Amino acid sequence: MLGETVESTWWDFQSHASWNRVARHYPGNFAPQVARNLITLYTKPGETVLDPFCGSGTSLVEASLLGRTAIGVDLSTRAIRFSRASLALVCQMTYPIPKLVRADARNLNFINNDSIDLVILHPPYSTIVRYDRSDSRDLSNLHSIQSYADSLGAVMSEAYRVLKSGRICALLIGDVRREGLYYPLSMIALCVGLRAGFVLIEEIVKHQINCKSDAGWRNRPHNFLMIAHEHLYVLFKPRSPKQWGEFMRDVGLTQQIINPTP
Ligand SMILES: C[S@@+](CC[C@H](N)C(=O)[O-])C[C@H]1O[C@@H](n2cnc3c(N)ncnc32)[C@H](O)[C@@H]1O
Q1: Ligand 1 atom at minimal distance to the Cα of residue 58
Q2: Terminus-to-terminus CA distance in the chain, angstroms?
Q3: pTM of whole model > 0.90?
Q4: How high is the pLDDT of residue 2?
Q5: How many distinct structural domains can be found in the chain?
């Protein structure tokens, strides 16, 4: 029931833990072990976890089972329905009951500044899985990498605003391939996070298994490798702007690199 615990920056869960039978039918859901390990590593019971792209509610279920307060946000009514069903299935007897809000992650004005202990971000990976085609605010409808980066930037700025100083914002993201070229979405997302004011304390590589796209790759002729990993960046909200400035200077990331002018 507790799932695998982690000790290194290589996370390889052989299957999705079985207790959440609802979430498993939501496209693009992550393994409960991802959320469980993040919550265990970076929060204590009673603290507050926010997931602004909560989807089927995987992290809300884990937070609730671990005795954390959780807030889940998603733009899609389908996601909110899935989250409710996941919580009803797994967390009937647990307390506190997570709060669910249907909203745009780029505007979390219903959450106070410096009030959250952990943010877990699992955005759409560009257009790989389309969530709500009818909603232009949905990040999965943004084909242009620049528009995607701008929107993710707005989400990261909100995450930074609501997070307490000295706490963690974890971002899970995969890269994408388009017409034979490899688009390093994760690298772009990391730059966006740094630009929002975070510093990096871990980069975890997660083995990505059993994706629907794997079958397509296997069954078609290809002259490229199957993408089988995701990046999990553990970002830290510095206690002072000086710490951010020093980090950026030490790793040689100038304003020019993280915020290039076209
Ligand atoms: C990769 S899924 C998250 C899956 C989730 N971790 C789970 O285990 O089910 C991304 C989610 O982002 C949501 N989304 C896309 N654009 C959004 C936006 N602007 N604000 C809030 N949610 C958004 C989609 O509806 C989708 O549920």
Answers
A1: 8
A2: 50
A3: yes
A4: 46
A5: 1
